[in-house]
């Protein structure tokens, strides 16, 4: 059986690539719902329905465990997927998200002045602030919706990224500044080096957080790890494929990848 990684677009490939670096031999399947990108401007019910169709496809392809790399989907649909969908359809399978592991990492590092950037929907759910303050009321959090970053990343707008990042982040660092910036979207992994070089604060990037958290999960659930096949095989599916997606996918993975069309 396979480990699945799901995202609304290509950003989750960065998480999948980091997981592959941690687990060289497990068989993996990636699905990006590029037909419906971006999720950030959809309703909660629509996001859940998109996710449910994607989970159906991935489980039918033999996934034992699926990582929902999309922050918007994790914040919006994960609980329903775990509590309603899995018990009814696939009680022996598991679905995990990226929000809780990221929150755990922020708490472990003891930050008190934390910035969060994400899609409109992820920020509007307030999931990061609510969960962090629930566990540590002394944390001061500044959040910023940054809707232009994903389209620029997905569609080759590298030349404008620095100006757009400044537009979003400069207001956040006024006053007391930030100790760390939490990247609340998988696509933003591509920006971590620029952000670190330009601003100097710590940048919490999910490609660095999720793999060690997955190691811990497998330590606690060895039966799931044993169920995975270990041939080092990877498959990449998108719900819509164009030339730009093909080029971007190969750039993210560092090698040419074969993209297959998933019809949900």
SSE run: EHEHEHHEHEHHEHHEHEHHEHE
CATH architecture of the largest domain: 3-Layer(aba) Sandwich
What is the helix content? Answer: 40-55%
Low-confidence stretches: none
Lateral strand order in the biggest sheet: 4-3-1-2-9-10
Q: What is the CATH topology assignment of the largest domain?
A: Rossmann fold
Mean pLDDT: 92
Q: Biggest sheet, open or closed, and with what strands and sense?
A: 6 strands, parallel
| Oligomeric state of the chains in view | single chain
* CATH class annotation of the largest domain: Alpha Beta
- Please report the total strand number as a whole number: 10
User: How many structural domains does the protein architecture include?
Assistant: 2
Strand content: 15-25%
Question: Radius of gyration over alpha carbons?
Answer: 18 Å
Structural class: alpha/beta
Instruction: Give the terminus-to-terminus CA distance.
Output: 20 Å
Task: Tell me what the structure shows.
The protein is of the alpha/beta class and 264 residues long. The protein folds into 2 domains: 2-97 and 209-261, 3-Layer(aba) Sandwich (Rossmann fold), CATH 3.40.50.1860; 100-207, 3-Layer(aba) Sandwich (Rossmann fold). The protein contains 13 helices and 10 strands. A 6-stranded parallel beta sheet has the order 4-3-1-2-9-10, with helices on both faces. The chain has a 4-stranded parallel beta sheet with strand order 6-5-7-8, sandwiched between helices. Helix 13 links the parallel strand 9 (234-238) and strand 10 (259-261). The longest helix has 17 residues, at 44-60. The relative contact order is 0.19. The model has no long low-confidence stretch (mean pLDDT 92).
């Amino acid at each position: 059986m396979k480990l699945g990684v799901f995202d609304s677009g290509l950003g989750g490939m960065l998480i999948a690539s980091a997981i592959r670096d941690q687990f060289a031999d497990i068989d993996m399947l990636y699905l990006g719902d590029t037909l419906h990108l971006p999720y950030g401007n959809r309703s909660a019910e629509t996001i859940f329905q998109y996710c449910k169709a994607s989970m159906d496809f991935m489980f039918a392809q033999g996934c034992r465990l699926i990582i929902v790399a999309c922050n918007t989907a994790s914040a919006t649909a994960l609980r329903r997927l775990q509590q309603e969908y899995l018990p009814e359809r696939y009680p022996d399978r598991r679905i995990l998200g990226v929000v809780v592991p990221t929150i755990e990492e922020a708490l472990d590092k003891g930050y008190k002045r934390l910035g969060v950037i994400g899609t409109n929907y992820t920020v509007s759910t307030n999931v990061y602030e609510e969960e962090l303050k629930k566990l540590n009321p002394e944390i001061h959090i500044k959040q910023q919706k940054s809707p232009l970053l994903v389209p620029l990343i997905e569609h080759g707008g590298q030349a404008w990224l620095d100006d757009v990042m400044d537009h979003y982040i400069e207001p956040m660092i006024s006053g007391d500044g930030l100790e760390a910036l939490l990247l609340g979207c998988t696509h933003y992994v591509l920006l971590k080096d620029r952000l670190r070089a330009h601003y100097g604060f710590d940048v919490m990037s999910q490609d660095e957080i999720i793999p060690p958290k997955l190691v811990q999960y497998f330590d606690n659930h060895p039966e799931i790890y044993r169920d995975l096949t270990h041939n080092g095989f990877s498959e990449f599916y998108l719900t819509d494929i164009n030339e730009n997606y093909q080029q971007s996918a190969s750039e993210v993975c560092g090698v040419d990848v074969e993209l297959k069309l998933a019809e949900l």
